[in-house]
Amino acid sequence: MNRLIALLSVLVAAADMFAAADWPQFHGPGRDNISTETGLLPQWPEGGPRSASTACADGRLYLMNEKGVVALAAVNPQRMEIISRFELPKQGTGPSWAHPVVCNGRLYVRYSQYLYVYDIRK
Fold first, then answer.
1. Contacts of 2 (CB under 8 A, 6+ apart)
2. Is the pTM of this model over 0.70?
3. Considering its fold, how many domains does the chain have in total?
4. Interior CA angle at 79 toward 118 and 72, to 5°?
5. Are the C-beta atoms of residues 114 and 91 closer than 8 Å to each other?
6. Largest separation between any pair of C-alpha atoms in the chain
7. Could you give the 3-state DSSP secondary structure of residue 9?
8. What DSSP string runs through 28-66?
9. Reported confidence tier of residue 103, pLDDT bands at 50, 70, 90
10. pLDDT tens readout for residues 86-96
11. I need a labelling partner for 51 at 20 to 30 A (CA). Which of 3, 11, 63, 114 fits?
12. How far apart are CA 36 and CA 6, in angstroms?
């Protein structure tokens, strides 16, 4: 749990999200849970998520919780704002902790044995 909180803090607290490096896969670009960002918050601001799988790509933070709720968030060192959210179709059994993946303008999310693909190009 502490690793998840540390990982999420790294993603949320980047001072300039659009200049920050992408974090498009589990454990980050080097798959080593190491971020080169500075000025990070030690914990989530009040009201922030308690637990979620994440991916950061193209200046966006994608989150998915264990119940299949997917969210797009805007973040800065002071706060996190949910821009949009949706629930995956109710199929299979949960909970599911698969991490979202962003590749070539598509968001891939797996819940149970189902894989969903969403076009997220601007």
1. none
2. no
3. 1
4. 5
5. yes
6. 41
7. helix
8. TTTTSS-----S--SSPPTT--SS-EEEEETTEEEEE-T
9. very high
10. 999 988 887 88
11. 114
12. 13
